[in-house]
Amino acid sequence: MYGFLIAVGILLLLSIIWMVYRIQTLVSVVKGSDKKIATGSNKVNAIMFVLFLVGATVLMFWYSIKEFDNYNLPVASEHGVITDELFWITMAVTGIVFIITHVLLFWFPYKYQYKEDRKASFYPENNKLELIWTTVPAVVLALLVIGGWRAWSDITAPAPENSHVVEIMGYQFAWEVRYPGMDNVLGEHDYRLINSSNISGVDFSDKNALDDFSSPVVVIPKGEPVLFKIRARDVLHSVFAPHMRLKMDAVPGMPTRFWFTATKTTEEMRAELNDPEFVYEIACTEICGRGHFSMRKEIRVVEPEEYRKWLADQKPYIVNNPALVADLPAELKELAEITISEYK
């Protein structure tokens, strides 16, 4: 460790000495010193700019093509197609501008390197040019923003009435998944009810909660709208399902939502990728603490018939743990006992 610090100190000292030398050189220029400023390093630096431009361009295109399949994952949702179109349009517009500006940026030091017999041109202003390079980017960016806003408005609009509801709750360091049962209506929750046997804080005094159940895997049907109701129990988390092009923050005290329609089952995606072990996943994209890396939940997309069969086989919280409703008022307790009996 001490050796590393000494090496850093030596580098900093050399850098300071070099900067002092450069400052002295600039001061001599300002004073009009007769000392010749231009040296061979001027041409070397100009050539290195061009070489860096060529090398970086080749490396950028090589890496982009080589890793294309890793960063351009297959789309598995309806809105994901629109999201990808917006992304590639934005990439094309900004990419063309990026390449042009950087070619000029690295070519100019070579083209206009210092020469004793050349004088810099004085070009104070050009109102027409300034109007063009202000108006054109403003119009292009406005079009990009409006396109993104329209897509985002559709995604965050109220979900269709026939949507399958799934609650995703983030906490350090896992996801808890709650389904509303056959009535498709989630029961209320209250953070004050959270304990070791009720980690979601479900309020079982709400009759809609009596058939709610949890699942270790997020199971959803293909081709039918699904509404994720998202919340957090402790700190900021973020629900990210890359193949669905889905990302939404989970914020304590501020429920969020995201609805989508899956277009490919897990088995279809495995066949497409030729990967029998492939699974869709939810990952957390907020640094939420030491165990952030473990916040992963599998999404299983199945055919609608298989989903309904799976849904009918699930047992509510109160069937697996009747103690959750032991303290309910008599009329609700009777309703809870009827619900329990139906699943036995």
UniProtKB/TrEMBL annotation:
Per the record, the major location class is membrane
Keywords associated with the record: Copper, Electron transport, Membrane, Metal-binding, Respiratory chain, Translocase, Transmembrane, Transmembrane helix, Transport
Q: Extract one GO molecular function annotation from the record.
A: cytochrome-c oxidase activity
Q: What general EC class does the enzyme of this chain belong to?
A: translocase
Name any cofactors this protein relies on.
Cu cation
Q: What are the EC numbers?
A: 7.1.1.9
Q: Where does the Cytochrome oxidase subunit II copper A binding domain lie?
A: 161-313
GO CC annotation terms, alphabetical: plasma membrane
* InterPro entries reported in the protein's UniProt record: CcO_II, CcO_II-like_C, Cupredoxin, Cyt_c_oxidase_su2_TM_dom, Cyt_c_oxidase_su2_TM_sf
Where does this polypeptide localize?
Cell membrane; Membrane
Q: Known PROSITE patterns for this protein?
A: COX2_CUA (PS50857), COX2_TM (PS50999)
In its UniProt record, which GO terms are filed under biological process? ATP synthesis coupled electron transport
Cofactor binding mode, per the note? Binds a copper A center.
Q: Which reaction does it catalyse?
A: 4 Fe(II)-[cytochrome c] + O2 + 8 H(+)(in) = 4 Fe(III)-[cytochrome c] + 2 H2O + 4 H(+)(out)
The membrane-spanning stretches of this chain are 6-23, 44-65, 85-110, 131-152
Identify the residues that the record assigns to the Cytochrome oxidase subunit II transmembrane region profile domain, covering every copy. Answer: 59-159
A Pfam family of this chain: COX2
Topology of the protein relative to the lipid bilayer: Multi-pass membrane protein
Q: What does this protein do?
A: Subunits I and II form the functional core of the enzyme complex. Electrons originating in cytochrome c are transferred via heme a and Cu(A) to the binuclear center formed by heme a3 and Cu(B).
What family does this chain come from, according to its entry?
Answer: Belongs to the cytochrome c oxidase subunit 2 family.
Q: What is this protein called?
A: Cytochrome c oxidase subunit 2
